[in-house]
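Hey, resending since the last one bounced:
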Amino acid sequence: MRWRRHRDAQPGISERDLADTWQVVSLLLDYPDDVLLGRVPVLRGVVAGLPEPQRLPLTAFLDRLEQGALGALQQEYVDTFDVTRKCSLHLTYFTHGDTRRRGVALVEFKQAYRRAGAECDADVELPDHLCVVLEFGAVQDWPTAWHLLTRHRVGIEVLRAGLAQRGSAWLPVLEALRSTLPVLDGTDQEALLRLKLDTGRTHQM
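The structure tokens again:
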């Protein structure tokens, strides 16, 4: 099975760099506010120690974050991640949409967290939210998060394509994440094309 091959693949960077990258990406893909702005100096310190494929795109976004108007960035965030279907941060949405099968997939995420000794509060955020998965992987159990991310690798590519199409400020953040994951193969590319076609038929969530 394709997901088994991806599950067995290993990250191309150290566990420390993987965890640091995922932690920073998790924070930067969250809604931008004054708290995030206050963390920029600390985030820059972490990013400075990362390998180039992760350091350069994350540094570019941090520059944008500091130099831009917060209100405009907040509006762009809502327009991008809360409105546009192909830019959803919920991984199971790409493969299941708002169907009953998605409920089963969400339970699988929760069970994976529970086996690793973590609980996800669905009242705060759904367990398939990309920021939740990355935070979990960064601070608690990266192999389980790796498994979840690589199982939904094609969905991440749909998200990347959606951000690229919009010329989104968050594209470099997603590129940093992609640099830590396995590349797609031919079968993945076919699945990606199908998902792009599906999401292209519906522009808004």
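The first helix runs from residue 2 to 8.

Sorry for the duplicate.
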